[in-house]
Amino acid sequence: IPEGYIDFIPKIVPSKLFQDQFEVNPPIPIDTTWPKILTYFNNWCNEISNYPNKKRLEYYRRMYIYFVLVSYHSGIRAKELLGEIETIYILNKDSKWISMEVYKGGIRWCDIKLEEEDQKSKSKNIIQSLKVKIYIVDSINGAKREVYSSIGYYLKSWKNYSIELRNRFNLPDLKYDDYVFFNPFTSKPYSYSQVNKTWIDMRNSLFCENSTSNPCKPYTLSSLRNSFIFNQIILGNDLEFLKKISGQSRGLLKHYYKSK
Questions:
Q1: Which end of the chain is more exposed for a tag (fewer CB within 10 A), N or C?
Q2: How confident is the model at residue 11 (pLDDT cuts 50, 70, 90)?
Q3: Does pTM top 0.85 for this prediction?
């Protein structure tokens, strides 16, 4: 760059940072580890008989397993699916700063478009046949995007289950613009710390006891998203399309492709 054209030194991001994304949040192998995680959460969903607040606990646990399924098979970030509360400060008419809670992220039922079920697919595996388009309106990087995936069955099942639970627990009826993974008892998102702790409890139970090599495989909530990206790369899917639906940078995806 000729002298005098810029007044700062560009920061060069070393390629090791790209590699670290998969090292810190490693993909979950679909044939070996993923079934163990699903089995754990399925059993966990049914272990509520001796707990107080069974209604809230049952809803949370059912919500959680569908959240995990959707994130793993769509590559949508956890906070983009779940939503979170942010506190902002604004000036009122008296020129005083007041705090206000706003929701950031989180998908709504109106952001989801299910394809009509193909009659021919009824003889096939319906779990893999119902396609869906999800509009990510409030993403982590601020850019809106559309996600295409074959997770329609999971979302349809969770919607039906959510309606059934709401009726059983005398909660307000599900509305068209309700958030998919919000707490219906509070109409707010579940805290990320709670969701993350549930994941860590699973990880500790499955992978951190009596481990001899790599003491604890560091699967994280971000591993769900990275698993989707990794699986798409292994399948040889188009990089530009993957960039479009994942919201991941082209440079990072190219690094992943080159390393596989």
A1: N
A2: very low
A3: no
- What integer is the mean pLDDT of 156-168? 94
Q: Which two tokens stand for residue 227?
A: 């698993």
133 in the Ramachandran plot: left (φ > 0), alpha (ψ -120 to 50) or beta? Answer: beta
Q: Is the dihedral of CA 144, 145, 146, 149 positive or negative?
A: negative
Residues 127/136, Cβ–Cβ less than 8 Å = no
- Residue 46 binned pLDDT confidence (cut-offs 50, 70, 90): confident
The two three-digit tokens of residue 68, written as one number: 């995990």
Rg of the chain in Å (alpha carbons):
21
Cα separation of the two ends of the chain: 34
The b-or-e profile of 84-115 (16+ CB within 10 A means b, else e) is beeeeeeeeeeeeeeeeeeeebbbbeebbebe
DSSP symbol at 10: P
- Answer for the pair 198, 64: CB distance below 8 angstroms, yes or no: yes
Residue 62 CA, chain-centre distance (Å), reads: 15
CB 83 within 8 A of CB 181: yes
Taking only the tens place, the pLDDT of each residue in 104-117 is 989 999 999 988 66
